[in-house]
Specification:
4-stranded antiparallel β-sheet; 47% strand; elongated
């Protein structure tokens, strides 16, 4: 039986990658020079449903996994085959073998669509199908900051700095969230809507010409966002001094859009990133 592979994530060092699937397991793959081939090790328990998202910690020794069982989990992923020498941290208080479950977080009521460690690896954020945004710090893992938004569910996110990240999904628009030591707040909608030309501003002649050409007064519903369908991925396109200065979004509309952070700050009054 073949299982659909849901998400692939490769480390910054490009010496290993992780694959989440509908088989309720995570495959961590690395290159074996002796056999001149890529081999994998599996993490199965306690994952109980399809894996939707995966992210590597900056050290390469931890993996964050989000799945359809409403859970976000952090596993130890150090490989003795690659002579990994992980160090203890609040995420991993004591050295643990590969596949050890280190911490598990529950969402309110939704699949976990996207998960991401902050640039330093000290914070973890995830978005779920209940339209929530969640952030936890490794120094206080019992306190999860949750923002229940009024938007449609987010599918992905990207940290712009240690204090802010963008999330996007079924609303077809990236949204900014600001993170402080004791709170997470919605920042701004980053896709400024274009002014809609109202029929009330049309002259009588233009109105009848349109009616004569199309047979109706409105040709259909028009979305006033750059993307016209769900955004499925956000990637950093350029960084400077540890902060993302340019990022890209891609979606089901077939578009790849580049966003300049400085340009967004100039266009949106009061925006701070």
């Amino acid at each position: 039986k073949q299982w659909y592979q849901r998400r692939v994530a490769i480390t910054a060092g490009e010496d290993r990658f992780a694959v989440g699937s509908g088989a309720r397991l995570l495959s961590v793959c690395y290159f074996d020079p002796e056999n001149n081939w890529w081999v994998s090790k599996h993490i199965k328990k306690p994952i109980r449903s399809t894996i939707l998202c995966v992210d590597w910690h900056p050290t390469n020794y931890l993996l964050a996994v989000g799945s359809c069982d409403f859970k976000c989990r952090v596993f130890s992923s150090a490989l003795k085959e690659l002579s990994d020498k992980p160090q203890t941290s609040p995420w991993m208080p004591k050295l643990s073998k590969f596949g050890t479950l280190l911490v598990e977080f529950s969402t309110n009521n939704g699949w976990v669509h996207g998960v991401k460690f902050s640039p330093s690896g000290a914070q973890l954020a995830w978005v779920s199908h209940d339209s929530s945004v969640n952030v936890v710090s490794m120094d206080n893992q019992t306190k999860v900051f949750t923002v229940l938004t009024a938007s449609l569910p987010y599918c992905c996110l990207l940290w712009l700095s240690e204090d802010s990240f963008v999330a996007a999904g079924h609303d077809n628009c990236p949204d900014l969230f600001n993170v402080s030591r004791d709170d997470v707040k919605y920042g701004a909608r980053l896709d400024i809507k274009k002014e809609k030309l109202s029929e009330h501003n049309m002259s009588a002649m233009a109105r009848f010409q349109k009616l004569d050409e199309h047979g109706l007064t409105e040709t259909g519903t028009k979305l006033h966002t750059t993307h016209v369908n769900c955004i499925t991925d956000i990637r950093a396109a350029a960084t400077s001094n540890g902060k993302v200065t340019r990022f890209s979004t891609s979606g089901k509309d077939g578009k790849l859009v580049i966003w300049e952070v400085n340009a967004l700050c100039s266009a949106i009054q009061g925006l701070s990133i």
